[in-house]
Design brief:
six-stranded mixed sheet; 235 residues; alpha/beta
Amino acid sequence: MIVLRKKTVVRALFLLAAVCGVFFLQSVEKPCVSALSAVNAGGTVIVVDAGHGGEDGGAVSPDGVEESQINLAIARQVQDLLLLSGQPVVMTRTEDVSLDNGEATVRKRKRADLKNRAALVNGVQHATLLSIHQNSLPSSPVTHGAQVFWNQQGDAQELAQVVQDSLNLCINPGNEKHCKQIPSSVYLMKESKVPGVLVECGFLSNPQETNALQDITYQRKLALAITAGLLCGIA
């Protein structure tokens, strides 16, 4: 039931908040868990994908803010929270880079980047994919909020619903979103053979939300909500 699911999400948020007093005071970066060590840990492995990177900045706000750096900042905070919770994690990237093999053209580099990300995801046993992105809708600059999309693998739809519940509680009060199936045009989600959810954390076409998305406190809030939903959904 929805009420029970939301209560579970709230409990997870409280548990995560209990460790945040330590987490948010620490400045030491934690190393990325390797695929091998994550598999050896057993159970589900969360592959956290910070969308875009390198010369591919992704969506851009009217004043030039690119999504790739915001994606990475949120993804790294999700990584830290998951590791603190004892959850094995693999990152597709931990720096502002593209996984493109140095191909000759922009088009080839972008294609190689996506193929390499999909190969990484599909190479991790017992994986669940979380892809972090930012949205944009220039035709409606008032539109805002965080929304979750799922692929057609396993129990991705159920996981997306729990993550969306958590985001609605923490990020979207009064502006609740409904999770949706991801369009088949999104390569990584289509080619991943594991359950996957993509979180559009906000709209860079909305000036107020763009400012919030660049703020570390708001990024932490997003990371908490996403992580709580993930932990509830894979439990």
